[in-house]
Amino acid sequence: MNIKKTISFGILMLVVLSFTSCEKMLVEVKPDNSYENNFQLMWEKFDSHYGLFLVNKIDWDAVYTSHLPLARAAKNEKELFAVLSSALSILKDQHVNIITTDPILTDYNSGHNGHIPAQQDFLFKTVRNHYLIEYQECTENFGYGKLSDEIGYIHVSSHMDNLSDIKKAMDKAIKALASSRKIVFDIRGHHGGSDNISKYIAGRFAKSKRLFMTSQKRNGPAHDDFESVLEWYVEPEGGSQYTKPVILLTTSHTISAGETFTFAMRENVNVIQMGETTAGAFSDTVPFQLLNGWLITVSVGDYRGSDGKSYEGIGISPHIYSKNQQADVLAGVDKTLELAMRY
């Protein structure tokens, strides 16, 4: 036998065995799927990623101290769910959720003390069937039309479309409504999406460049570890802008990118916000899975208005307050929209 080959083979086997041994040592041991470990994992994900501890003056260590014994004492998933829900209720954040795999336990939302309530003060169906004289649906989430020969209307239910599609839709809407004396822009059922779309659409109503928001995201283990502040400006966008009066309709269900859009639109001098105060949940979220398969969503950012203030948990108050009643909406009457048409 060739001695050199024998030595080379021996060295190769030694390397393979060494690598295999190291690999075994580096394999992470998955924590036991106990109720205590599920609580600790949830607490750790918020501790390392949540962006609003300082804004809302939350003592997260105190939450750990008070709830760990409860998690240890839990006897079933129902009791674990109660412990996790109690811990997250401290945050009062509509972007914070527990999504379970149990149809009985369902889900939990921190900002609403349990479940997000169904919207009762707005139905687009009421607007379309009883007020619009014409309407063009451009995407699943965007459409425009007329409430009268002189009043235009744009409805947006989210900013989850592609920006390229929104640019085309806005071109059509601005062209079709250019002769109107005002536009009612309806985001009363807006459930979020892209802040870049918020910026672009608001720019189609802008006369000048103005700061409308700042944002920063957690990027480290300490509660004050953040990326650099990002400044957001609204400025004229597209080939043309609509600079005549615009009434922006909001409700307490207008959330996330609907609220960053509200920030941007309010910086335009031709825009008045009417309706209800928005939800007060601006931050982006990141999902994490617990050991038992449940998902949690964690707010990772600190978003502020152009005045430097945080409106998390507060929302953006309208210039003119108006709230519909469910009975009216179901009967085909939208009093807030009627007020906007008269204003």
From TrEMBL:
Residues in domain Tail specific protease? 117-323
Please name one Pfam family that this protein belongs to.
Peptidase_S41
GO BP annotation list:
proteolysis
Q: Which Gene3D superfamilies match?
A: 2-enoyl-CoA Hydratase, Chain A, domain 1, 3.30.750.44
An MF annotation (GO) of this entry = serine-type peptidase activity
Domain of life per record: Bacteria
Instruction: Please name the PANTHER family in this protein's record.
Output: INTERPHOTORECEPTOR RETINOID-BINDING PROTEIN (PTHR11261), RETINOL-BINDING PROTEIN 3 (PTHR11261:SF3)
- Please identify the protein, giving its name as recorded: Tail specific protease domain-containing protein
